[in-house]
Amino acid sequence: MRIAVVGGGPAGLAVAAFARLADPSADVTVWERRRGEDTYGFGVILPPAALETVRRADPPLADALAARLTAWDEITVHRHGGSRTSRAPRLGAVGRRDLLRVLRHRCAELGVRLRQGAAAPDTAALAAGHDVVVAADGARSAVRTALADRLGTTTEPLAPDYLWLGAERAVDSLAFLVADTPRGPVTAHTYPYGQGRSTFLVEAAHRPDTDALARLFAEPLGGARLLANGSRWGRFLQVRNTAWSSGNVVLVGDAAHTAHYSIGSGTRLALDDAAALVAALRTEPSVPAALAAYEAARRPAVEHAQRTGRASAAWFAGLSGADGASPERFLVDLLTRGGRISMADLAADAADAAGAPSAGTVVSGR
Ligand SMILES: Cc1cc2nc3c(=O)[nH]c(=O)nc-3n(C[C@H](O)[C@H](O)[C@H](O)COP(=O)(O)OP(=O)(O)OC[C@H]3O[C@@H](n4cnc5c(N)ncnc54)[C@H](O)[C@@H]3O)c2cc1C
């Protein structure tokens, strides 16, 4: 089987590795337009369920990823000068750069042809020369855009406005910091993902600049510098498609669907897509049957994550300085996103349900 993969992010690289493992005679090429180690963002949360998916498909890859995870089992909120900490599902994060490095290394070991620094050729030419073309080119997928009529694509920017930064310090665990300012609340989602590094993702309607943010969060940051990596204020793009394939072109990962970052699921969904697509190609009698089976298998979990993500985004967008929540009240509200999301939803989307938290058990505060 000849497989062309457009995009060397988590989805495309995982499809390529899993496809070569499932069928060592498969001819698999990945085109990635970025060069070398260049990528966007900082650390991403990889819940235990994501590692389990990888482990079922490729145990050595799961071991390599697990070795790079920075994990925690608490969640802290800071607001109004106070903080509260609760137990939480065990979660871990990995730098996007590290994640991609591990995936690329595994692809190379397995004999995937990787065209790094090369934009993919025209989709029609790829479709004519391959059994399957996998569009793994991200939330703004050009392959998908060219087929938007047939795929029933809708994209919608979701509030709140966000800026994806990093911090030059490893915080202890997942924390939500809220600074109430005269122009409205500024919320930072922060978690560690490596030696001396944390993700520091900020939301605010008035889009303060990085210097203002460093001043606002000087105390919890302990004086650590904020880092940018192609960082710009914007809104999260919610992507949906009524069909995930057209002919022999199939969407995976963010090209097919996105779920709001505040539930930390996008990479997991991408890895699950990759495993399901390769399993369907292996077991179904034809490519059209495999693409239909892949979509049928994945759509329910994806739509659940999108509903949870949307509710979570709406809760963060609705935060206002007027609610005056104590850190304790804010923590409970956060854990259920003000009643919009149950713990079961969060456990299903962001964690291994078996490790569901004794949520709201406050373990410390001041
Ligand atoms: C602010 C923010 C925070 C997030 N936090 C988390 C988190 O904590 N946990 C989590 O699981 N997910 C998180 N996500 C989501 C996660 O980043 C994505 O879901 C995940 O990267 C999807 O993987 P992908 O491979 O589908 O797309 P991408 O990672 O976007 O990869 C697509 C690749 O395709 C390449 N490409 C595009 N066009 C072409 C072309 N024509 N030719 C060749 N290459 C091309 C791009 O260069 C890119 O490398 C977050 C997202 C955002 C925006």
Helices and strands in order, then pairings?
Elements: E1 2-6, H1 10-22, E2 27-32, E3 43-46, H2 48-57, H3 59-67, E4 70-79, E5 82-95, H4 96-109, E6 113-116, H5 123-129, E7 132-135, H6 142-146, H7 148-151, E8 153-167, E9 174-181, E10 184-194, E11 197-203, H8 210-216, H9 218-221, E12 226-227, E13 234-241, E14 245-246, E15 249-251, H10 266-283, H11 287-317, H12 327-335, H13 343-350, E16 362-365
Parallel strand pairs: 1-2, 1-7, 2-6, 4-9, 7-15
Antiparallel strand pairs: 3-5, 4-5, 5-16, 8-11, 8-12, 8-13, 9-10, 10-11, 14-15
Helix pairs in contact: 1-4, 1-10, 2-3, 2-10, 10-11, 11-13
Describe it.
The protein has 366 residues and is α/β, with parallel strands linked by helices. It has a domain at 2-37 and 95-157 and 238-315: FAD/NAD(P)-binding domain, CATH 3.50.50. The protein contains 13 helices and 16 strands. The chain has helices spanning 10-22, 48-57, 59-67, 96-109, 123-129, 142-146, 148-151, 210-216, 218-221, 266-283, 287-317, 327-335, 343-350; strands spanning 2-6, 27-32, 43-46, 70-79, 82-95, 113-116, 132-135, 153-167, 174-181, 184-194, 197-203, 226-227, 234-241, 245-246, 249-251, 362-365. The strands form two sheets. Strands 3, 4, 5, 8, 9, 10, 11, 12, 13 and 16 form a ten-stranded mixed sheet that branches. β10 and β11 (197-203) form a beta hairpin. α1 packs parallel to α4 (96-109). The longest helix is centred in the last third of the chain and has 31 residues, at 287-317. The structure holds flavin-adenine dinucleotide (FAD). Residues 6-12, 31-34, 44-45, 119-120, 136-138, 142, 164, 201, 236, 253-255, 261, 264-268, 270 line the site of flavin-adenine dinucleotide.
